[in-house]
């Protein structure tokens, strides 16, 4: 007879679904296992793995929508990923680019700032902030962000050259 409080059975069912790449069902059973026994470390690890796989799939779809210039659809998918992993700098960056494509500079600026909060090494976000502030005629903020990008970028590239040119033009 099965013990209804045993968390191993739903864990094993979750494992089977995960091995079949049916992450929705796997997630459901992993959660049941954790509800029955919150200290089940195997179920917690499996649940984390399932979440990462679900996020990976949605993120791939979102980037595809962005590449196809379906920006609103991409934003919806990026929102979904951020509900699962709210500190994901890459997702904030891609969502910001989607907002930029729709000329929604205020939302793009907020996302570029989040990008830098979670991944300060993504210095391209400073350049993008400069461009967006420039588009909003906020030249002081544009200049500051262009300068941060220049200061943090060693190699010469088109972005750095443009930022240097814009700083001279703004003055």
Task: Describe the structure using short key phrases.
mainly alpha, 9 helices, elongated
Topology as a string of helices (H) and strands (E) = HHHHHHHHH
What oligomeric state best describes the polypeptide chains here?
A: single chain
User: Which bin fits the share of residues in helices?
Assistant: over 70%
Total number of beta strands: 0
Shape: elongated
Distance between the termini: 80 Å
Question: Strand percentage, roughly?
Answer: under 5%
Unreliable residue stretches: none
Class from helix and strand fractions: mainly alpha
Kindly provide the radius of gyration, computed on alpha-carbon positions and rounded to a whole number of angstroms.
Answer: 22 Å
Annotation field: number of helices: 9
Largest sheet: none
Mean pLDDT: 94
What does this structure look like?
By secondary structure, the protein is mostly helical. It contains 9 helices and no strands. Helix 1 (8-19) runs parallel beside helix 3. The model has no long low-confidence stretch (mean pLDDT 94).
Write the layout of secondary structure elements.
Blueprint: H1 8-19, H2 23-36, H3 41-67, H4 71-84, H5 89-101, H6 105-118, H7 124-135, H8 139-152, H9 158-170
Helix pairs in contact: 1-2, 1-3, 2-3, 3-4, 4-5, 5-6, 6-7, 7-8, 8-9
In short:
This protein is mostly helical and 171 residues long.
């Amino acid at each position: 007879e099965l013990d209804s409080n045993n968390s191993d059975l739903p864990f094993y069912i979750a494992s089977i679904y995960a091995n079949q790449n049916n992450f929705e069902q796997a997630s459901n059973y992993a959660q049941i296992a954790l509800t029955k026994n919150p200290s089940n470390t195997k179920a917690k690890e499996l649940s984390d793995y399932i979440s990462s796989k679900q996020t990976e799939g949605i993120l791939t779809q979102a980037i595809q929508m962005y590449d196809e210039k379906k920006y609103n659809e991409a934003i919806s998918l990026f929102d979904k990923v951020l509900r699962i992993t709210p500190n994901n700098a890459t997702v904030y960056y891609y969502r910001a680019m989607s907002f930029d494509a729709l000329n929604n500079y205020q939302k793009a600026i907020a996302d570029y700032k989040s990008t830098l909060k979670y991944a300060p090494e993504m210095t391209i976000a400073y350049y993008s902030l400069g461009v967006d502030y420039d588009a909003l005629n906020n030249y002081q903020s544009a200049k500051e962000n262009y300068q941060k990008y220049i200061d943090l970028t060693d190699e010469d590239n088109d972005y750095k050259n443009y930022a240097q040119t814009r700083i001279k033009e703004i003055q």
